[in-house]
């Protein structure tokens, strides 16, 4: 009992620095944010009024906000599938190569080391200059699309850049999961006559459920808050066609009418949406893990 | 294997942080060195009494003129030391223009306000009402400013900032191409149509379109609205602020906007403002609805460019063909600054009789005061010719949310996701909302 308590104490001590940073820079602003969401503060003046739930009522009829919510959900669903499938395929492939595993791992993980805002500007150059150069000079006419002006292609380019940025990170997590799969189980399956796909689907995949949980949680959480890719790539345009909730909040707070209070109310709603969805996701995937 | 991976990542993280720290340290060291250096110089020069030390924080939105302003700050520091025995240390910050507003707002709310900061002239009212700006009406420098420029920085009869960037602008054009096609700048919409036809016959694209950043298409509404309302319905804006008017009354402006879009370069949504200016300089099109502030980029890209300015016609009434006269950037003095006195001295020094001309010329700013006696570029003279003839209008001050909305809607009009009726409805709505909020 005594040693158990001691162990807990040292565990907390290890986590303390991170906890303090989390509390000061995440928890405290989140809690005060709930207060500001009930004011009409404009971010500039020193005075503001407490207006209760008026901001939240206004949000109900704010078409631009709901448009951005729908766009974000579309983005989350598409990215969730594409990024995770690609990351898993990459992880399995890299794991199965005999030589140069470290090389491929580093290569695929590199984009994750770059800030997405910089990555976005790099890709902007590719979409706006390089692709058109290839279309004009090499006759690759299928590249001659309006990469920002046409909403479909704008969405496609956002997905391409976003998955480029996060696949490497997810791949590392999946690889860690794959390395934890005991080889004797795979060998036993092989003896029982299971082929490559069956072996993966029936043995490996169930055993990497924990990695899947982490990856799904991470993609859900981060893609709901997507900002940097869209901001650097399309700026939310044309008009508001590619505006995610985070971009919508940013514009509300820092541009136009400069409404900090209202913008905070929107971010509170975004927070609740993410909280509910990730809670459901964690519950379902964890119960799957326990089944094993 | 796993261990190796983890240790590799840790190592990488450590090197990264180490690099970051290293960078910071060196810059701090060099700064400390500078300070020591200046300190030793000062010891020699002021043996009589120890100099009073003052630190000034200045934030401006001209990263492209960082060198010029740094030199000017040095001059100010030297002048203060020599004339008043005050050792001023200026910390000059220049965030990039598109993030400037959010950074300034964060600093204001975080009680970390710079002693002097630039703001958009359109926002003077907001900042003045919030109590951040010092009244400079009776300062010596303000007395020297031209009256029509002074008006642009006056709120409720008080001058709340030193005007810095003042521009007369409308449409940039390539004089060579116009000469080649045998045409002169148009005075009416019909003439503009003829100009487009003549240019196309010569194989030139009439208009440069660079719509990726919303503020660029927005310029089209800025010039057309200004011309239309000044010439035909002068009380329109006033009534808009009272919810008594509608964009329906100025529907005409979309005739010329449509004409520009139909006769423009391709891939406008993928073209940023800087790239657009460079392409225009390289002859991609003959005209560009863009301010003279982009002349710097244009002339760097193509020093042989013969750049001109004409006023964009809105309809067939030449009274509506006017140039936009605007003060875009203003230097404000923080009302509650610790070193307000010195800050005001700096604000005055910006319009110093001896030194100001060189600064304004180096930055390519237009003259705003009688003390600015320097030869301006030919395109600036083109634009100011309209001003002298009385064919200019004071830049319309719209709520900034409406300005943003115009930019967005013009992007949407270009890609075809909204029509003119939709634009009018949404702009009226945005204006009403802004009125509602400012109550």
From TrEMBL, chain A:
A family per Pfam: BPD_transp_1
Entry keyword Transport: yes
Ranges of residues in domain ABC transmembrane type-1: 65-281
Main location: membrane
An example Gene Ontology CC term for this record: plasma membrane
Organism of this sequence: Kineothrix alysoides
Membrane-related topology note: Multi-pass membrane protein
Stated family: Belongs to the binding-protein-dependent transport system permease family.
Transmembrane segments: 12-36, 64-92, 113-133, 153-176, 260-282
Subcellular localization(s) per the UniProt record: Cell membrane
GO biological process: transmembrane transport
Keyword annotations: Cell membrane, Membrane, Transmembrane, Transmembrane helix, Transport
Name of this chain's protein: Carbohydrate ABC transporter membrane protein 1 (CUT1 family)
From TrEMBL, chain B:
Residues in the signal sequence: 1-20
Keywords from the named record: Signal
Record's keyword annotation contains Signal: yes
InterPro entries per the UniProt record, alphabetical: Bact_solute-bd_prot1, SBP
Family annotation (Pfam families): SBP_bac_1
Ranges that cross the membrane: none
Record's protein name: Raffinose/stachyose/melibiose transport system substrate-binding protein
Biological source species: Kineothrix alysoides
